[in-house]
C-alpha cells in the first residue's frame, strides 16, 4: 500500500528506503509504485499475480491545484503499462477518504468523508505537503 502526493519526478538520483518518511516513495507516484512492486517481488511475489485496488485523488482543498486528477491519471496509466489489473477503484471527486486494508484477505473498506466537522484533515494535508517539500533526498532506485 502506498500514498503519494505527486505523480512524477524527473530527478535522476533518489534514496528510497522502506519505512523512511524522507524518501521519494512518500512523494512521487513513479517511485512509490516502482518501490512497492520491487519490494513485493523481492519477497517472493510473482508479477503475474499482481492486482491493484486504487483509491483517492480527491481535490480536498479548493485553493490547491488539482494534483489529485493527475495522480489518478498517472496510476491508471502506470498500472495499465505494467499489466496490473485494477480490481476496485474510487478516484477523484472532492472528498477525502478513509481506507482500511486487510492484507490477509485483500479487502478494502472505504469511507468518503463527505462532511468535515473540523479542519483536522485539511491541516494534516497542508502540514504533510509542507514537510515533504522541505526534504532532501539522494541515492539510487533499482528499476526493473
In short:
With 144 residues, this protein is of the alpha+beta class.
- How is the main sheet built? 2 strands, parallel
Spans of at least 5 consecutive residues with low confidence: none
Fraction in beta strands: 15-25%
Amino-to-carboxy terminus distance? 19 Å
CATH class reads: Alpha Beta
The number of distinct structural domains comes to 1
User: What does the average pLDDT come to?
Assistant: 79
Radius of gyration: 16 Å
CATH fold name: 60s Ribosomal Protein L30, Chain: A
- The main sheet orders its strands as 1-2
CATH architecture: 2-Layer Sandwich
Structural class: alpha+beta
Q: Which descriptor suits the 3D outline?
A: globular
Identify the quaternary structure here: single chain
The tally of helices reads: 3
Strand tally = 4
Helix amount: 25-40%
Order of helices and strands: HEHEEEH
Description:
With 144 residues, the protein is an alpha+beta fold. The protein has a single domain (24-133), classed as 60s Ribosomal Protein L30, Chain: A (2-Layer Sandwich), CATH 3.30.1330. The protein contains 3 helices and 4 strands, in the order αβαβββα. The strands form 2 sheets. It has a two-stranded parallel ribbon with strand order 1-2.
Note the topology.
Blueprint (H helix, E strand, L loop, with lengths): L28 H14 L8 E6 L10 H15 L3 E7 L5 E6 L4 E6 L7 H14 L11
What keywords describe this structure?
144 residues; alpha+beta; 60s Ribosomal Protein L30, Chain: A; two-stranded parallel ribbon
Amino acid at each position: 500500500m502506498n500514498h503519494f502526493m505527486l505523480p512524477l519526478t524527473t530527478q535522476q538520483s533518489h534514496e528510497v528506503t522502506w519505512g523512511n518518511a524522507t524518501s521519494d516513495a512518500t512523494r512521487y507516484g513513479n517511485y512509490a509504485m516502482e518501490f512497492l512492486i520491487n519490494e513485493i517481488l523481492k519477497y517472493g511475489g510473482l508479477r503475474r499475480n499482481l492486482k491493484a485496488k486504487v483509491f483517492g485523488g480527491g481535490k480536498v482543498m479548493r485553493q490547491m491545484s488539482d494534483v489529485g486528477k493527475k495522480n489518478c491519471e498517472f496510476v491508471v496509466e502506470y498500472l495499465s503499462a505494467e499489466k496490473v489489473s485494477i480490481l476496485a477503484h474510487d478516484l477523484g471527486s472532492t472528498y477525502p477518504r478513509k481506507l482500511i486494508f486487510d492484507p490477509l484477505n485483500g479487502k478494502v473498506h472505504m469511507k468518503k468523508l463527505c462532511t468535515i466537522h473540523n479542519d483536522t484533515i485539511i491541516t494534516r494535508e497542508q502540514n504533510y505537503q509542507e514537510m515533504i517539500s522541505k526534504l532532501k533526498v539522494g541515492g539510487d532506485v533499482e528499476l526493473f
